Amino acid sequence: MSRVDFGELVTGLSETVGYRRAREVVEEAVVAVDLGQQSDYAVDEALEVCDHIASTHESPLSLAARALRNRLRVRRLDRSATDAPSLFENAVDPAVEVAFTDEGSVVRRTNGRFADAFGVNSTTAVGSLLTELPVPPHDTDELTDLLNELRAGETLDVEVTGQLASDSEDEQRVFRLRGIGALQGEEVTSGYLIYTDITERQRRRRELERRNEHLEAFASIVSHDLRNPLGIAQGYLDIARDETEVPHAADIEEALDRMDEIIEEMLVLARGSQTIEDPEGVDVERVALEAWRHVPTGDAELELGDLGRIRSDHTRLLHVFENLYRNAVEHGTSEGTQSVTASDGGVSATVTVRVWLDDDRLHVADDGPGMDSDLLEQALDAGYSTQSDGTGLGLFIVKEIAEAHDWAVELGESEAGGLLVTFHGVERA
């Protein structure tokens, strides 16, 4: 891709405000966008400078900056003659080029995808007005307004509705319509438009929103409608024990504690299963250490390998580590014997847990007794537990949270003979 001279940026504005003022404006802009004054810039960098000038100055300087920006964009699109066929014929989305004339937006050329999608003949379409073709939006006035915006120097990135040639009469699709104008001198004389069918993407988004709303409603029921009577029962038990000897009080309290534990895990499950629409950059080491502090680990040890930042949800990643740590500590020690729960509520275990990241995989492994290979697959099912007092939700919650991240979970045997949990499809941030 060709580069843009510093002098070219100045000259592009100098006809409007004079060379000296134009130079000052460009110098200020390159500093503001963290580029610094150089002899030349990549086209994308020069576009950033133009956008900054256009957004921080008033007319006529802002208009001159937008005009310069459009010229540079055309340069990026038309780097060479061989790129033009590629833009159209090899594009996976329908694309069309129009010329702006007194009669309207006249079709110059289309790609094959455009002809197939909207049922037009590429040859006969050339020379027709775009507003006369069966393209979205089908409302002629709406399409005319969008083309006028393009002709005025604006770029298009809007959602429009319409149909494909193969659709039934009452079927409606959603398209993302993107457009950019091409300048000749100071006038936008032509434009490029690309249609991307986002109907399925929109459907999935709505479905995810509904699913998340249902899960949140379920979490609310669990939190209030179950926890409140549980708290009342615990309160009456405490009052009764203060006033008299209650038969089987310890068993009753143990049952209430177990119910509270199940409710807590159901809350984590409901909220952890909600699809993550906008994951953020999360420091894996920080979350792994935070989770270790939250779990009674006794004499267990944590080893952290090569870790960095991944795109995730902090709270849900925290729950993943907490459940895996708890599973490792409660199910065994490095000697292969069952862990011992101390009388003070602490846990005595000598298991070592390792966490590391490589490529697109996050690993959590322990050196405990591990799990028989024929049990690995069902270990991720809801309700599965090797302990009589277990809820069977720990690893199921891990799986649900992973799927909310669009990760795949694999259970296996660690090098030390314990359990290895691997998350595939992890994206680094």
Low-confidence sequence ranges: 78-84, 333-348
Secondary-structure element string: EHHEHHHEEHHHEEEHHEHEEHEEEEHEE
CATH class placement of the largest domain: Alpha Beta
Category from helices, strands and their pairing: alpha+beta
| Number of separate strands | 16
Secondary structure tally, helices: 13
The percentage of residues in β strands lies in 15-25%
CATH architecture of the largest domain: 2-Layer Sandwich
CATH homologous superfamily title of the largest domain: Histidine kinase-like ATPase, C-terminal domain
Alpha-carbon Rg, integer? 31 Å
- Biggest sheet, in brief? 5 strands, antiparallel
The CATH topology annotation of the largest domain reads as Heat Shock Protein 90
Overall geometric form? elongated
Describe the structure.
With 429 residues, this protein is of the alpha+beta class. The protein folds into 4 domains: 3-76, no CATH class; 83-197, PAS domain (Beta-Lactamase), CATH 3.30.450.20; 199-275, Helix Hairpins, CATH 1.10.287; 277-429, Histidine kinase-like ATPase, C-terminal domain (Heat Shock Protein 90), CATH 3.30.565. 45% of the residues lie in helices and 21% in strands. The strands form 5 sheets. The protein has a 5-stranded antiparallel sheet, sandwiched between helices. The radius of gyration is 31 Å and the shape is elongated.
